[in-house]
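Example 9 (inverse folding). The structure is encoded as follows.
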């Protein structure tokens, strides 16, 4: 039986509760990730003590507490100013909104608490000694790389429909497969996603898209993803399979999670949801608005889906102009999408990367702010302040970008003087 290494601060908190006569254990993701050897960010603790009792125990021990979610059993203990949440074992009431229980009932039994959880890999616990408490064969499912609901899948998804997307997110991040009955229930319950708030759907989609193993899940569960975007059947199976193949491409090293997520979401929309649509960019924007994404994500996604169908830069000046206008991050996402979407071959992709890197390394002038002269210098040459200055600077930038003029003060001023004659 595996033994989990429980951090000292968590063991100390557990010891305080146990000396007061209560059960306490770590539960959920921290146990799962410990068994998988993954980094653990939070330790969730559950106890047989009711919230008032938890507060009393730690108050007597000299610790401050915060009634974070006391109604639902959660008390936060400040351990050296670090918040540690402790939640009472509970049984969930009815779920009339398909998201959260209308009420909870506290229980003294760990088994009743674990039996209400979503998936077996999240329904394991461990005590202060690190020994795993596994009542639903979660360890076996971890070993066999399987996502399986605790109890009847349809019931779990009716209680909280967001669990449908959580199942896909866990599978995408861990490289697991959905157990047969769980997979069937995911497909059956997809229309219920319309009951879930757009913000929560977007949060789960974001996690899913960051998963290293998302591509095969898109192929198998594209109707669920389409439903999460508010789309109605029929779905273009071939288009979504093409999108899945695009997601199999590895994103460049050094990208932020946001860049990875937005580029992959664009692939889903461009190839799966709106393939060949002349107004795909607007549809992508509308989709983001419906999901209530953040403004930056909405702007970038709409831009990329619109721009990916436009002509690809064939010359260095065209590439300079694109990088100067859109920024290298956006251009790198476009290059990735062109490659993943099979728009151009590998040699052309390599050429674009090399030319882009050379432009940045040489510090080529690609923006007005990089010109060797600015508005003040133009005024000294006799040009009055106003729109004319902006137009001349734009024309100068074009001459420099096209390698007609060097970005040198004398050369630029002479060009302006010639135009003024």
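The amino acid assigned to each position is listed next.
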């Amino acid at each position: 039986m595996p033994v989990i290494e429980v951090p000292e601060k968590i063991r100390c908190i557990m010891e305080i509760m146990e000396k007061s006569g209560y059960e306490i254990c770590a539960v959920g993701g921290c146990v799962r990730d410990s068994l998988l050897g993954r980094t653990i960010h939070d330790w969730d603790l559950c106890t047989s003590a009711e919230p008032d009792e938890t507060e009393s125990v730690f108050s007597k021990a000299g610790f401050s507490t915060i009634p974070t979610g006391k109604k639902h059993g959660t008390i936060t203990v400040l351990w050296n100013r670090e918040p540690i949440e402790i939640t009472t074992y509970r049984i969930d009431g009815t779920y009339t909104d398909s998201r959260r229980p209308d009420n909870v009932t506290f229980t003294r039994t760990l088994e009743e608490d674990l039996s209400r959880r979503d998936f077996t890999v999240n329904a394991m616990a461990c005590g202060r000694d690190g020994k795993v408490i596994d009542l639903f064969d979660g360890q076996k499912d971890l070993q066999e790389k399987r996502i399986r609901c605790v109890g009847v899948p349809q019931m779990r998804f009716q209680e909280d429909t967001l669990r449908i997307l959580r199942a896909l997110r866990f599978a995408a991040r861990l490289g697991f497969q959905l157990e047969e009955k769980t997979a069937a229930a995911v497909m059956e319950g997809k229309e219920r996603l319309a009951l879930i708030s757009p913000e929560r759907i977007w949060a789960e989609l974001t996690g899913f898209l960051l998963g290293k193993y998302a591509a095969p899940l898109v192929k198998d569960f594209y109707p669920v993803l389409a439903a999460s975007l508010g789309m109605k059947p029929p779905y273009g199976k071939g288009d979504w399979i093409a999108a899945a193949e695009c997601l199999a491409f590895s994103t460049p090293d050094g990208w932020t999670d946001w860049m990875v997520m937005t580029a992959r979401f664009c692939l889903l929309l461009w190839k799966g949801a709106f393939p060949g649509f002349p107004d795909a960019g607007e549809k992508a924007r509308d989709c983001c608005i419906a999901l209530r994404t953040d403004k930056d994500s909405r702007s970038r996604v709409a831009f990329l889906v619109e721009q990916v169908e436009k002509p690809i830069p064939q010359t260095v000046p065209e590439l300079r102009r694109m990088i100067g206008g859109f920024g290298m991050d956006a251009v790198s996402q476009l290059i990735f999408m062109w490659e993943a979407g099979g728009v151009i071959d590998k040699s052309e992709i390599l050429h674009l990367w090399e030319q882009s890197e050379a432009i940045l390394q040489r510090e080529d002038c690609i923006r007005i702010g990089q010109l060797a002269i600015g508005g003040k210098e133009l005024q000294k040459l006799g040009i009055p302040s106003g729109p004319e200055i902006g137009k001349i600077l734009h024309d100068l930038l074009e001459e420099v970008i096209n390698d007609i003029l060097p970005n040198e003060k004398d050369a630029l001023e002479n060009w302006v003087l010639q135009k003024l004659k």
